[in-house]
Design a protein that fits this description.
It is globular and about 75 Å long. Strands 3-2-1-4-5-7-6 form a seven-stranded mixed beta sheet, sandwiched between helices. It has 400 residues and is an alpha/beta fold. The longest helix has 24 residues. The chain has two domains: 146 residues, no CATH class; 189 residues, 3-Layer(aba) Sandwich (Rossmann fold). α1 packs antiparallel against α5, α1 packs antiparallel against α17 and α6 crosses α7. Helices cover 48% and strands 10% of the residues. The chain binds S-adenosylmethionine (SAM). S-adenosylmethionine binds next to α7, β2 and β4.
Length: 400
């Protein structure tokens, strides 16, 4: 068994065993799903002050240490979620055209340099999948003097990217097209190194599948937006993932991206108002309709939130075709919403512990799929998290 499949199988084991702690929708749960099975964890969360939540969200290691006395299994998951930093090759930028980074936002530029430094130079033409304006392609073309074909869906990005490439005299050709079309598939060639930086969900999966079918020499991707898939639920790629008992919904697949950024006071307050209003309305509608089912309400204009809870309920009831009787004690339902908000926040805190392990489960599925297709695969991080939290790189290279 390869190192990837060994780690995958262990991740799969623990994620499956610990499903009740992450695979649920906090909004739809009136109480912790573990209230009876692990009451000590429920009590600890109930007593957790607000300030501690903010601290734990900013410090995943402290969070894990605090939760592990109740759920010691998460230590295994944490160990399995460590990735090596990929070695960065130094590359001379001396011969790069001046202004190569013009118009590229600072963080993106650092991502691109790090991505480029972490992938081998094979001396092959490049295919840049879902290229945007071809920021990465620019560096590839400038550094390796090999032609770059940049596939992108949006016309305007292709036009802009092509104009910049022309100005910088870079050997780049933009191809406007849909990554899912047969025409785009035919851009994948055997003597080629394909790259995809942050192509969402099925877009990067499609590239991997085409590379595997057409046996392109090498592919390097940094995956993101795992939930942007065309099927109703996740379709595993590799044999070990197909054999797993885990069935991942889009809600589950969003989890790796839900890195609760430690927002400022104002944003936290706004979130508290909106989410507690939604949960308060939900508690009210469940009471009125004798239901136990969460009823999602569409996006709301932020200005409406300033009109108060009662106005919000009237708007939401109209959207959902619910008749609100006279004499509702709005204060009571608002408080119920606030109470549920605190609980939802604490449920999300526990789900945070499983975020990176689930991302790695998905990443290893991709890596094992390429290994099955005959590729030598490496997985690691190509930059630090502040540059981008989606900092994982999968590189697959044909062995022959
Ligand atoms: C998140 S951006 C990444 C862009 C670029 N790789 C980068 O890192 O800056 C994803 C790109 O995929 C493009 N895209 C979305 N759907 C596509 C499709 N079906 N075919 C080709 N490109 C697509 C979008 O227009 C967007 O430019």
């Amino acid at each position: 068994m390869s190192a990837c499949s060994e780690v995958f199988c262990q991740l799969d084991h623990w994620l499956t065993k610990l499903r009740p702690y992450w695979q649920f929708m906090p909004f739809a749960c009136p109480d912790y799903p573990w209230r009876d099975s692990l009451p000590a964890l429920a009590e600890w969360l109930d007593d957790l002050p607000e300030a501690e939540i903010a601290r734990f969200l900013a410090d995943p290691q402290a969070l894990r240490q605090a939760v592990s006395p109740y759920l010691p299994e998460i230590d295994h998951l944490a160990q399995l979620s460590v990735l090596p930093e990929l070695p960065a090759r130094t590359r001379s930028q001396q011969l790069w055209p001046r202004n190569l980074e013009a118009g590229i936002p600072g963080r993106k530029w650092h991502q691109i340099l790090a991505f480029h430094a972490a992938i081998p130079a094979n001396g092959l033409p490049w295919l840049e999948w879902c290229a945007g304006k071809g920021y990465l392609g620019r560096v590839l073309a400038a550094a390796d003097h090999q032609p770059v074909v940049s596939l992108e869906w949006q016309h305007s990005l292709c036009t802009d990217g092509q104009a910049i490439a022309k100005r910088l005299s870079l050997p780049m050709t933009f191809q406007q097209g849909d990554a899912f079309s047969p025409e785009s598939a035919s851009l994948v060639q055997p003597a080629q190194h394909a790259v995809a930086l942050h192509a969402c969900g099925d877009l990067h999966v499609t590239l991997l599948k085409q590379v595997a079918v057409r046996q392109a020499k090498a592919v390097s991707i940094s995956p993101c937006c795992y939930h942007l898939i065309r099927s109703a639920q996740y379709e595993p790629l590799s044999e070990p993932a197909k054999a797993s008992q885990l069935v991942l919904t889009k809600h589950d697949l969003r989890m790796p991206l839900q890195e609760t950024v430690t927002a400022g006071q104002r944003v936290r307050k706004q979130r508290f108002v909106e989410v507690s209003f939604r949960l308060g309305f939900d508690a009210l509608q469940q009471f009125l309709q004798h239901s136990h089912a969460y009823l999602p309400v569409p996006n709301v204009q932020k200005a409406l939130l300033q009109e108060g809870f009662e106005a919000f309920c009237q708007w939401a009831a109209e959207k959902k075709g619910i008749q609100l009787p006279n004499g509702i004690d709005y204060r009571h339902w608002q408080q119920a919403g606030e109470h549920r908000f605190h609980r939802v926040e604490r449920m999300e805190l526990i789900r945070q512990v499983f975020r990176r392990p689930l991302e790695l489960w998905l990443v290893y599925d991709r890596a094992m799929f390429m290994a099955q297709a005959g590729y030598q695969v490496s997985v690691g991080t190509f930059c630090d998290k502040p540059i981008t939290p989606r900092n994982i790189l999968i590189h697959a290279q044909l062995e022959k």
